[in-house]
């Protein structure tokens, strides 16, 4: 796997986790029995930014996966 692909995949996963942290975080805390802590709700204001970053990385991953390969006839 090329380093661009690894960076793109890692960036996509990181951005997706950050984009959903405002919703998933409280669910995890509620599952642990800590229901009244709203730590992750403070990330709600950054959700549009995280979503833009997520879509950018997904678009980059799609482009790098399905672009035409250059023929190198040596």
TrEMBL record:
Cell compartment(s), UniProt: Cell inner membrane
Topology term for the membrane: Multi-pass membrane protein
Transmembrane segments: 7-40, 46-66
GO cellular component: plasma membrane
Xref: PROSITE patterns: PROKAR_LIPOPROTEIN
Domain of life: Bacteria
UniProt KW keywords: Cell inner membrane, Cell membrane, Membrane, Mercuric resistance, Mercury, Metal-binding, Transmembrane, Transmembrane helix, Transport
A GO term for molecular function: metal ion binding
InterPro entries: Transprt_MerT
Main subcellular location of this protein, as a coarse class: membrane
The family this protein is said to belong to: Belongs to the MerT family.
Role summary: Involved in mercury resistance. Probably transfers a mercuric ion from the periplasmic Hg(2+)-binding protein MerP to the cytoplasmic mercuric reductase MerA.
Protein name (record): Mercuric transport protein MerT
Originating species: Candidatus Scalindua rubra
Lineage, broadest ranks: Bacteria, Pseudomonadati, Planctomycetota, Candidatus Brocadiia, Candidatus Brocadiales
């Amino acid at each position: 796997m090329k380093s661009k692909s690894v960076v793109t995949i890692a960036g996509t996963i990181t951005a997706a986790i950050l984009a959903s942290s405002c919703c998933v975080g409280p669910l995890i805390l509620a599952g642990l029995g800590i229901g009244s802590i709203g730590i992750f709700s403070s990330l709600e204001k950054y959700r549009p930014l995280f979503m833009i970053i997520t879509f950018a990385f997904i678009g980059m991953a799609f482009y790098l996966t399905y672009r035409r390969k250059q023929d190198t006839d040596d």
